[in-house]
Amino acid sequence: MGTDFILGAVATSVKWGDMLFYLVLFIVLLALLKHFAWGPVNEMMDKRANKIANDIDSAEDARQKAEELAVKRQDALKASHVEASQIIERAKKNGEQQKNIIVENAHSEAQSFKETAKQDIARERQDALEGVKNDVAELSLEIASKVISKNLQFDDQKALIDSYIEGLGKQNEVK
């Protein structure tokens, strides 16, 4: 039992020298990690956090700009609709004015043609009346010359006048 006791006690005894050595190594390793790895890792993490924050800010700015652009486009679209409506309204007014001018000109021309026709009819009527007057005057002269050259009875005079009137009617039909 003696050897077993010694081995058991040795096995269960703490080796303070090894423990101290491992503790010093651990502290040196932590110091080296802090000096060489912790700073760059922290710096990398800070850079990544800043980049993410900047990306979020940029995305928010882009979203706001997109919203502003959408509002501007909507306003421009509304303005173009208003302008298109105004152009259509002006075109309608111009069309209506052109129609009124054309109708007014047509009425003026029709009135002018009507006046010209009335004047032509009046002139033709005047010419016809003058022709009839001349024919009546000639007839009257012929009748008077025949009456003077021959003393006729009432029946003979009536027959002579009737024959001249028939001759006058035949002359007008020929003209």
From TrEMBL:
Keywords, alphabetical: ATP synthesis, Cell membrane, CF(0), Coiled coil, Hydrogen ion transport, Ion transport, Membrane, Transmembrane, Transmembrane helix, Transport
- Output the InterPro entries linked to this UniProt entry: ATP_synth_B-like_membr_sf (IPR028987), ATP_synth_b/b'su_bac/chlpt (IPR002146), ATP_synth_F0_bsu_bac (IPR005864), ATP_synthase_B_chain (IPR050059)
* One MF annotation (Gene Ontology) recorded for this entry: proton-transporting ATPase activity, rotational mechanism
Q: Name one Pfam family in it.
A: ATP-synt_B
KW Cell membrane (keyword) present: yes
Q: Its membrane topology, per UniProt? A: Single-pass membrane protein
One CC-aspect GO term: endomembrane system
Q: Which residues cross the membrane?
A: 20-38
Q: Where in the cell does this protein reside?
A: Cell membrane; Endomembrane system
Any coiled-coil ranges, and where?
49-79
How the protein assembles, per its UniProt entry?
Answer: F-type ATPases have 2 components, F(1) - the catalytic core - and F(0) - the membrane proton channel. F(1) has five subunits: alpha(3), beta(3), gamma(1), delta(1), epsilon(1). F(0) has three main subunits: a(1), b(2) and c(10-14). The alpha and beta chains form an alternating ring which encloses part of the gamma chain. F(1) is attached to F(0) by a central stalk formed by the gamma and epsilon chains, while a peripheral stalk is formed by the delta and b chains.
Under PANTHER family, the record lists:
ATP SYNTHASE SUBUNIT B, ATP SYNTHASE SUBUNIT B', CHLOROPLASTIC
Q: What does the UniProt function comment say about this protein?
A: Component of the F(0) channel, it forms part of the peripheral stalk, linking F(1) to F(0).
Give the protein family. Answer: Belongs to the ATPase B chain family.
Task: Report the protein name in the record.
Answer: ATP synthase subunit b
Query: Which species expresses this protein natively?
Result: Liquorilactobacillus hordei DSM 19519
Lineage start: Bacteria, Bacillati, Bacillota, Bacilli, Lactobacillales
Encoding gene (name): atpF
